[in-house]
Amino acid sequence: MFKKPSLMLRITVAKIFGLVVGIGWAIMLTAMPQAGIFDLLGYLLWWVTLGAMVGAFGVIDWLPVLNRRFTWWLRGPWIAGWLGLVAVMLAYGDMAALLQSYFQGFHLFNSPWWFVAACALFGLVCDLIATIAAGDGKETVQML
């Protein structure tokens, strides 16, 4: 999209995508009876921060241990899924109560572990958009 790869542009694009997803997530949470204002604001800030992390990790495009390229379709879901896993492990009880209040009769989506899959999907799309808009790898941090 732009001629010169840039890390700041990459992070900005990823944060804007995270803001859009966060606003959508907050709108969805308004339908849940137990969701308070801190839940709405917390999830909004979560998606923006997750976008920033996915954007910042776009610099890493090589895995020296495996001697392989770390492509966007692996890097984005990996970092976002990992951070989603950490979030679920830290707030499992609150997430479970929130989901059980919304999906009362339908038990497939009652599990907070679906949040990890949602984060991984977010990372895939976010890293794709950031890579198209601002590139990836060491070119994003070179000054000249």
UniProtKB/TrEMBL annotation:
<feature type="transmembrane region" description="Helical">
    <location>
        <begin position="7"/>
        <end position="28"/>
    </location>
</feature>
<feature type="transmembrane region" description="Helical">
    <location>
        <begin position="72"/>
        <end position="93"/>
    </location>
</feature>
<protein>
    <submittedName>
        <fullName>Uncharacterized protein</fullName>
    </submittedName>
</protein>
<keyword id="KW-0472">Membrane</keyword>
<keyword id="KW-1133">Transmembrane helix</keyword>
<feature type="transmembrane region" description="Helical">
    <location>
        <begin position="113"/>
        <end position="134"/>
    </location>
</feature>
<feature type="transmembrane region" description="Helical">
    <location>
        <begin position="40"/>
        <end position="60"/>
    </location>
</feature>
<keyword id="KW-0812">Transmembrane</keyword>
